[in-house]
Amino acid sequence: MIHATPTAPAPLHLAGNGRPRQLRCRVLQSPLAGVSDRIFRGLVRRWAPDALLFTEMVNATSLELGHGLIKVEELASEPGPIGVQLFDHRPAAMADAARRAEAAGAFLIDINMGCPVKKITGKGGGSGLIREPELAVRIVEAVAAAVAIPVTVKTRLGWCGLEPGADRQRAAVDWCLQLQGAGAQLLTLHGRSREQGFKGPADWGAIAAVKRALRIPVVANGDVNSPTDALACLAATGADGVMVGRGTMGAPWLVGQIDAALSGRPVPDTPGALERIALAAEQLRALVEARGDHGLLIARKHMGWTCTGFTGAPQLRHALMRAPTPAAALALLETAASQLG
Ligand SMILES: Cc1cc2nc3c(=O)[nH]c(=O)nc-3n(C[C@H](O)[C@H](O)[C@H](O)COP(=O)(O)O)c2cc1C
Fold first, then answer.
1. Does the CB atom of residue 116 touch ligand 1 within 6 A?
2. Quick one: DSSP state of residue 286?
3. Ligand 1 lined by 222 (C-beta under 6 Å)
4. Model confidence over 50-81: pLDDT tens digits?
5. What stretch of H or E contains 153?
6. Which atom of ligand 1 lies closest to the CA of 221?
7. Which residue from 27, 193, 246, 302 has its CB within 8 A of the most atoms of ligand 1, so it is best to mutate?
8. Domain ends where: 208, 234, 263?
9. What is the whole-number distance in angstroms between the Cα of residue 190 and the centre of ligand 1?
10. What is the rounded CA–CA span in Å between residue 24 and residue 15?
């Protein structure tokens, strides 16, 4: 068990446009497409009752047409704060989707200006907006005018890969100042450019430069995979919080562990083999109940991430990836647990 020294930080206040919000926890769970669904969030919430969690990114146009509803329905029934992350390049569609998400119970609206996927940037959405700052500003303004809850933006340092240093920092600061000026009330900054994708280390120095230049809260993102990383990232960037993405895949306890470390509480132990297997089985059952047979396909990747770090884990993962039915996968998990127990 890791013991940390800090004391609980003061809540962050986000004024909104009539419906202010408070963030009581300085670690946020990343929006993760294909991962951060309702069931995953439920597991994260078990360890992190106060943390801001996010939906997967939701296409504003599909929400307008009624297709993306699965990602925002029942939000109001989930405990704790859940932000809805939207992406699109059309201000009116974003404003309309934001209204719907607010009505569904969103704690706040986050605008995706970081996604590097060509299908999305090609139409001008996600990180494509970094190349279209005027359009980005209009989108933030339209969304902020449409809802009473706060509007935040998640973005990257820039479009192309300037070397770490003064130029890169200046470009990132210029970009983020425009978002602040448009009405974003908090900014999450992934310390890589769009061109880098996920390659190379996240540039926490550039995040620090943005933090110094902005008056709104800045959340640092990139390469935080443990409580120790989170403390180091906050020290290096001076940011108001950290957001954790890939490190939580198969580790829904990580956000809670980081929250404890940042608040000076004892850090909960990382679950052992039997607990991991039980979590994998629980997630599989819930996914199949919610999504039918397709739930098995979604559960496979989660099971692959969760079932690690114990004797026989590689063989179990191999078998789980080939299990033809949910019942067969559950039987494999039960056998593995009985062999360990
Ligand atoms: C599988 C996967 C899905 C992601 N989906 C989203 C998304 O929907 N919206 C978003 O803003 N970022 C998304 N990201 C980026 C992460 O939120 C995060 O910014 C990035 O992984 C860097 O943080 P990390 O080093 O903690 O993973 C995704 C990343 C991965 C690996």
1. no
2. H
3. yes
4. 999 999 999 999 888 877 777 887 788 899 99
5. strand 151-156
6. 23
7. 246
8. 263
9. 9
10. 14
Give the count of beta carbons closer than 10 Å to the beta carbon of residue 23: 24
CA of 259 to the centre of ligand 1 (A): 19
Burial (CB < 10 A; 0-12, 13-18, 19+), residue 156, is buried
Whether 2 shows a pLDDT value over 90: the answer reads no
Q: State the residue for tokens 């996927």.
A: 117
Report the alpha-carbon distance of residue 336 to residue 341 in Å, rounded: 9
pTM value?
0.96
CB neighbour class for 289 (10 Å; exposed up to 12, middle 13-18, buried from 19): exposed
Q: What is the enclosing helix (H) or strand (E) of 59?
A: strand 58-59
Q: What percent of the chain has pLDDT over 90?
A: 89
What amino acid positions are annotated as catalytic residues? 115
Contact 72/98 with Cβ under 8 angstroms? no
Ligand 1 contact, 69 CB (< 6 A): no
Residues 127 and 232 occupy one common structural domain: yes
Q: Are 131 and 106 members of one domain?
A: yes
Separation of alpha carbons 31 and 112, rounded Å: 9
220, 239 contact by CB (below 8 A): yes
Give the pLDDT mean for 78-103: 95
Is residue 2 in a domain?
no
Total domains present in the chain: 2
Ligand 1: does its nearest atom lie under 6 Å from the Cβ of 247? yes
When pLDDT is cut at 50, 70 and 90, the band that residue 166 belongs to is confident
Q: Give how far Cα 173 sits from Cα of 15, 178, 215, Å.
A: 23, 9, 12
Distance 79 CA to ligand 1 centre (A): 23
Task: Check pocket membership of 110 for ligand 1, CB cut-off 6 A.
Answer: no
Candidates 27, 29, 30, 129: which one to mutate for ligand 1, based on the most atoms within 8 Å of Cβ?
30
Q: Is the CB of 27 under 6 A from ligand 1?
A: no
Task: Find the domain containing 159 and state its range.
Answer: 12-263
Whether 323 contacts 332, CB under 8 Å: yes
Residue 246 alpha carbon to ligand 1 centre in Å: 7
Residue 268 lies inside a defined structural domain of this protein: no
